[in-house]
Amino acid sequence: MLCHISLFKIKTLSTAISIQADAAGYEFLIIEHKKFNAAFALHGGHLVHFQLKEQQPIIWLSKTAIYNQQKAIRGGVPVCWPWFGAADKSLGENLPAHGFARTSKWELAAHNEFPEGVEIELRLTDSAATRDIWPFQFELLLKATLTDQIKLELISKNTGNIPFSYRGALHSYLNISTPESCAISGLNNHYNDSLDNGLAKSGDSTLQITGPIDAIYKKALSPITLSDKQFNRQLIIDNSGNDAEVLWTPWIAGAKAFADMPDQGYKTMFCIESAITNKSGVRVKPGHSHSLSTTIRSHTG
Ligand SMILES: O=P(O)(O)OC[C@H]1O[C@@H](O)[C@H](O)[C@@H](O)[C@@H]1O
Hints:
- By secondary structure, this protein is mainly β.
- The chain has one domain: Beta-galactosidase, Chain A, domain 5.
- The protein is 4% helix and 46% strand.
- The chain contains two helices and 24 strands.
- The chain has a nine-stranded antiparallel β-sheet with strand order 7-8-9-10-24-20-19-14-17, with no helix packed on it. Strands 6, 12, 13, 15, 16, 18, 21 and 22 form an eight-stranded antiparallel β-sheet that branches.
- β4 and β5 form a beta hairpin.
- The longest helix has 7 residues.
- It is globular and about 45 Å long.
- Bound molecules: 6-O-phosphono-beta-D-glucopyranose.
- 6-O-phosphono-beta-D-glucopyranose (BG6) binds next to β21.
């Protein structure tokens, strides 16, 4: 499953679910269900693998991803939180891009196996280290329901006594055959091009992948479909709680510049992210929660 990492089993949680670790003690939750295989890294609360039996993986993971506590994993579904992109200057200098959730160690809060799949809950709460850079109390829950589809729900709960605002994303790296085989439809026509100083532009409702893309599309009004001719499948993506879909591929130069992506890696991935990118973010009052989600299902033929 994670064929480029050697893992040993630490604990069996149910027939399909176990905790396994690499030689350095980096922990994964491994799911070997009769319908699919999947894996999460506890570091980052990060889905790193999902593959239905007899199909190509839905989620892309870099073969040269770096697994250590300081780094976000390249691939999978990074949880970007409590900000998206660069941190607000008011929080300080040199803060990590896309927040601290993807480089924090999460805990397994619940797991349940049933005939059609599994439910997994991973939790991250504030600590002295998080309050040092983001002065709020919170409970972040990633609820994953894995069946013949992936459903990820990120619930941001304010456990303190002052409101907070957050931005973020479920930054899905989708596994594709080749860029030329793919077309994306169902997008909103309006986007801001991050490769052109955030300029507001309008595009066609179907997008081909022919070069680098880094764009913030206004929230789609219906599900988005990534059609992949060579894999003979459509990935159908339904997001909620978001204000945008961020589309991203680093393309040739970008992949070359990353130490944790093979030079050719850009050819087999494409990101469609369920994101909150508005400057003001989503405000969550004490005792309240907000949910950001993405559902990805595959339709073959
Ligand atoms: O390399 P990172 O921090 O994981 O970010 C990857 C990309 O993430 C995307 O969401 C951003 O729009 C891009 O600008 C960014 O390059």
